[in-house]
Description:
By secondary structure, this protein is α/β, with parallel strands linked by helices. 23% of the residues lie in helices and 31% in strands.
Amino acid sequence: xxxxxxxxxxxxxxxxxxxxxxxxxxxxxxxxxxxxxxxxxxxxxxxxxxxxxxxxxxxxxxxxxxxxxxxxxxxxxxxxxxxxxxxxxxxxxxxxxxxxxxxxxxxxxxxxxxxxxxxxxxxxxxxxxxxxxxxxxxxxxxxxxxxxxxxxxxxxxxxxxxxxxxxxxxxxxxxxxxxxxxxxxxxxxxxxxxxxxxxxxxxxxxxxxxxxxxxxxxxxxxxxxxxxxxxxxxxxxxxxxxxxxxxxxxxxxxxxxxxxxxxxxxxxxxxxxxxxxxxxxxxxxxxxxxxxxxxxxxxxxxxxxxxxxxxxxxxxxxxxxxxxxxxxxxxxxxxxxxxxxxxxxxxxxxxxxxxxxxxxxxxxxxxxxxxxxxxxxxxxxxxxxxxxxxxxxxxxxxxxxxxxxxxxxxxxxxxxx
Length: 417
């Protein structure tokens, strides 16, 4: 499949993710998607005849469905990238757009290298033709000459383990045999870039192992691989990078272990206690906490009871941060005992991207004695799923009127016989 020449990547309007930045400074870019969106139109009532299609064409109305929204991705040569997300998140659509099978509604895609794709079960096969004829047809569509196919034919058939079926019409093949033949052709066209959808799940265990071994061989040869899978363990074991999509939006682009953890949070398959991503890898990073009398005022660490206290939490948000962020702030005493807590409104806040400060103002400090720390928990306000947590080492002190203990409590003492 021919691909447009890769132009030098334009400078993005938004800050690059850590993965994009690392990629752009390392291996050359072979796939670039800039501002890619894809819209489909869903009609509630379909035409049942050709006449009805033409008669109702002008008056027909449908509902727009955005499968992809403003995707910015750069893939470096030799990277193995997993595309993950729930059903309907846009993974397969993105893969088809990158392969040139679908044209984006807006945005640009540039590819440098020969692509071999296995995106759908039996894609490119003609059911009325034999397996032999389909090998020649499919391989020629992927850019091989007849002489090259002649040379590779036996190897393709042996890889697919279909010597006994190769002259049968493929409409009589099982789904697993379809996959075997399609994958065998795709990996024999000597691709620079291999795109694979979830079709491997159809094959039996032995064939899956053969496919994974072939992908591992491609990795060792420095080829670029993108594949869609629901197997998060496979992404963690085989990928250098993961793209996590949700309702057409790219919500994470980076380390596989972090991305799969984030997706498990979104899917509700990870307990809340273990669900928080380390704050330095999170799309919402609590970077600092400061104490002052008034929001934006001079820093102050020592207070008297009755004084006003402002706890300011600084956040650094990437483009993949949740749209609505919820903060839960615990004021911790000695022994990590929570003394009081503060929260943003239940619907959360919408800080956008970049660095922002969230101020929590306590009009009158209670009569306390001691030094206190701050722990910040960040959640997605829309789903309630945890994003990250950070316990800061910064302390503020309150000089209460009592000489010991934490609280001053009014009391009376009397003698009774």
